[in-house]
Fold:
Amino acid sequence: MLAGALEKALFERGYKVIIASSANNVEVERQYLQMLAANQVEAIITGSHNLGIEEYEDASLPIVAFDRHLSDDIPTVSSDNYHGGELAAQYLLNQQVHKPLVIRDDDNSNSPTVKRGQGFVNYMTRHNVQALRYEVSDKLSMQQADVEKIKQFVLDNQIDGIFANNDLTAIMLKNVLPNLPIVGYDGTPLLTLLHPDLVTIVQPVDEIVKKLVEIMLVKIGDNSAEITTDNIVSVSLKYK
Structure:
């Protein structure tokens, strides 16, 4: 969804786009970075989930990241992950949830997505509710076996509400825990169309794309230009 919107926005500005997917493979991503540099592309917009790639630190190309902190010198655009977590917590409290669970990525970095769980837990704490945590690897896509493990954890701990780290996880959990209030994160138009009952935190794709392109164009004009490191776009709760 984001890649398609970016491609359209850049094409309208006269840019040709190369879309490269590393499939979360660090070595493949390194090879792509070398290839892009050799082909003298003007800039890179990345949503990489691979961390610790030194090539980003040394890259001379203008780079903008979406939802990931890759380097102190690379500007990042993200949705307001922290407030998204707060909105999810507020919704579940309104559903009379007393023992909530937050599913978060097993990610010890300082990337923006980590703040989803932080916002959720802190909001619950302020309302004297203790949220349990369940970590999943953000390197792997959710499998049915993983869903069954989470389901068992929910039953064993008498969980009565869940904040999932993304919509796909929320949908898979809703299929096995249909009576539990569950909140996802992303809110892409296709998923919300296919699952109109999905409660989720919506990232405004158009605004994110606009900001990514805006920063990229500034960096192309002057790669040394000072740009705000953290660029945050507002989110909203979709519940019907």
Q: What stands out?
A: The domain at 2-79+204-235 is CATH 3.40.50.2300 (Rossmann fold). The chain has two domains: 2-79+204-235, 81-202.
